[in-house]
Specification:
eight-stranded mixed sheet, FAD/NAD-bd_sf, EC 1.4.3.19, Glycine oxidase ThiO, alpha/beta, oxidoreductase, single chain, about 30% helix, glycine oxidase activity, globular, 10 helices
């Protein structure tokens, strides 16, 4: 029997497993498909909420902590696995921001570098970017990570740890119960038992918890993205305009995202989204009109009512824990949200006050 059984092999589940294993715990991680191939693979990898000044304090305090962790985490995984998560800290240009004063006030309060810049500055930083307005905002400290490689590195590291058991292609169909307490899961690999269960199922978390008669207000929200194969250096840093972004990779690939669609668990792509994303990208960087679209895909975000994740134990099942509902910020918040949960699992002093994230009746009722 494991000390912990984690359901869900995305970045949240894998980082939870890594921290528990680092602390000497016996961990089993089960994933219905392949680790890191759902929302963790499909996102863009920006290590910040898109417009951080617009978020609840509960999201902001996790994102600020996580942002500081990614450089050392990427270096650790590169050294341990030989896989480079490609953490890049090249900054972000915000174009066409209609609440710039709110953004600047937020930055001053936190001591966060953010400044108003003009066309000459933008032209120097990103010659290929077209500016319609006279000014933009520049955040020099923002970073991004190549999330498919981050997930691959996490999986490789966990597979090498003797106190971690990875079970992929392992579908959980129910929970086992002994004397009124959950003591394991019923899966396609048989009955798997553990002292404590952690549900990190992303957009599928609500389906899992419904089997325990818990109504978690987390739903799938589809996001479609595209990638251009462009000359290296055409765009060198993240550019954001009207909620759409361009993210450069080291090999010249440029990611463009994303749509927000209430479509259940449908992950199909369509021509309307392709046209919309191309229009947004080519308005920001006109030269992309002559570059081929290399790929189009969709992922499912775990949407929650206010974007604040659910982190903690189930009120009626104290040995069943949840870390889900990060909406658009799963990768952004992963280091901090998993650290906060592991603090609770191991009886450590919490990283931050856990109260805003707990599964209280009021929060669970927000469906």
């Amino acid at each position: 029997m494991s000390d912990f059984l984690i359901i869900g092999g995305g970045v949240i589940g894998m980082m939870t497993a890594l921290q528990l294993a680092d602390a000497g715990q016996q961990v089993t991680l089960v994933e219905r498909g392949e680790c890191g191939k759902e929302a963790s693979w499909a996102g863009g990898g920006i290590v910040s909420p898109l417009y951080p000044w617009r978020y609840d304090t509960a999201v902001s305090q996790l994102s600020r902590w996580s942002e500081g962790v990614y450089p050392s985490l990427a270096l650790r995984l590169l050294e341990e696995t030989g896989i480079d998560p490609e953490y890049r800290q090249k900054g972000l240009l915000y174009l066409n921001v209609d609440d710039a004063e709110d953004a600047l006030n937020w930055a001053r309060q936190l001591g966060k570098p953010l400044e108003r810049v003009g066309k000459d500055f933008v032209g120097h930083k990103e010659p290929g970017v077209a500016m319609a307005a006279d000014s933009a905002l520049w955040m020099p400290t923002l970073g991004s990570v190549r999330n498919p490689r981050l997930a691959k590195a996490l999986k490789t590291r966990l597979a090498a740890m003797p106190n971690v058991t990875l079970r992929e292609q392992c579908d959980v169909s129910g929970f086992s119960d002994s004397n009124g307490q959950v003591d394991g899961v019923v899966s396609s690999h048989g009955l798997l038992k553990a002292e404590r269960i952690v549900v990190c199922g992303g957009a599928w978390a609500a389906q899992l918890l419904a089997q325990l008669e818990v109504r978690l207000p987390v739903r799938p929200v589809k996001g479609q993205m595209i990638a251009y194969q462009a000359p290296k250096g055409l765009v060198r840093r993240v550019v954001l305009k009207d909620g759409r972004y361009i993210i450069p990779r080291a090999d010249g690939l440029l990611l463009v995202g994303s749509t927000l669609e209430e479509a259940g668990f449908d992950k199909t792509t369509d021509e309307a989204a392709l046209a919309s994303l191309k229009q947004s990208a080519e308005a920001m960087v006109p030269a992309l009109a002559s570059c081929p679209v290399a790929n189009q895909w969709a992922g499912l975000r775990p949407g929650s009512p206010d974007g604040v994740p659910f982190i903690g134990a189930l009120p009626e099942r104290p040995n069943v824990f949840v870390n889900a509902g990060h909406y658009r910020n799963g990768l952004v918040l992963a280091p901090a949200s998993t650290h906060l949960l592991v603090d609770q699992l191991l009886g450590r002093t919490p990283l931050v006050d856990p109260a805003p994230y707990q599964l209280t009746p009021a929060r669970l009722a927000a469906i």
